[in-house]
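Help needed: design a sequence for this.
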């Protein structure tokens, strides 16, 4: 190697439940003896990744742990997507999402009936169709995603409270259909599109909270979208 030239990095040692992210020191222009150390991201063994045009996507999970940790980065590239069917019918109980997560694709966690909680990162933009349908161990949700897909939480029957943050813009058809234990739902004024029957068959739904200034508008939107067997639901200002 010549003075002020780039060095060749060694192969990073592998570590169980970690993935390599990057080296701690730049080695592109080396002018003196240099020690570099690998930086790792925690990552549950058994996650399968695919590199896309936008970053890494988790496409499958073949591990045995019931608690899964997604890395934020791998090879200095963000991990920002979960692929279709990646955890469908999985028996995992918890997942720690990447802080860079942008999209959860269709059927990603469909039928993952042991999943007990979800802590979505604020980076999340879209939750796909039936992404969390029939996740019957979930009991509460706070959702930042701009787009909540068709039947995204359809049949997740034990959820009692759902809060949509003021980043949410679109709720697609049947998003919370047949969430039969749902009591409280918060829909902020940022929501501009509500498709058909988002909470039909939510027979225990009592309160749909929104800002005081948005009560009339939201009620009109819900009346237009239609809902059945949720006769006790009323829009409440706060």
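Sure. Designed sequence:
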């Amino acid at each position: 190697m010549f003075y002020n030239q780039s060095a060749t990095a060694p192969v990073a040692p592998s570590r169980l439940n970690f993935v390599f992210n990057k080296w701690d020191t730049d080695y592109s222009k080396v002018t003196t003896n240099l020690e570099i150390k690998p930086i790792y991201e925690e990552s549950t063994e058994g996650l399968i990744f695919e590199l896309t045009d936008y970053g890494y996507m988790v496409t499958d999970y073949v591990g045995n742990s019931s608690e899964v940790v997604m890395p934020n980065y791998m090879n200095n590239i963000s991990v920002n997507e979960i692929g279709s069917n990646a955890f469908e019918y999985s028996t995992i109980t918890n997942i720690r999402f990447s802080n860079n997560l942008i999209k959860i694709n269709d059927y990603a966690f469909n039928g993952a009936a042991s999943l007990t909680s979800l802590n979505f990162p604020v980076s999340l933009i879209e939750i796909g169709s039936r992404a969390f349908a029939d996740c019957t161990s979930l009991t509460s949700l706070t959702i930042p995603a701009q787009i909540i897909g068709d039947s995204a939480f359809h049949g997740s029957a034990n959820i009692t409270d759902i809060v949509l943050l003021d980043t949410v813009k679109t709720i697609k058809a049947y998003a919370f259909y047949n969430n039969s234990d749902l009591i409280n739902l918060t829909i902020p004024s940022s929501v501009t599109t509500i498709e058909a029957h988002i909470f039909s068959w939510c027979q225990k739904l009592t309160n749909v909270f929104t800002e005081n200034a948005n009560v009339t508008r939201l009620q009109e939107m819900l009346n237009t979208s239609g809902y059945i067997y949720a006769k006790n639901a009323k829009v409440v200002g706060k």
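The longest helix spans residues 215-225.
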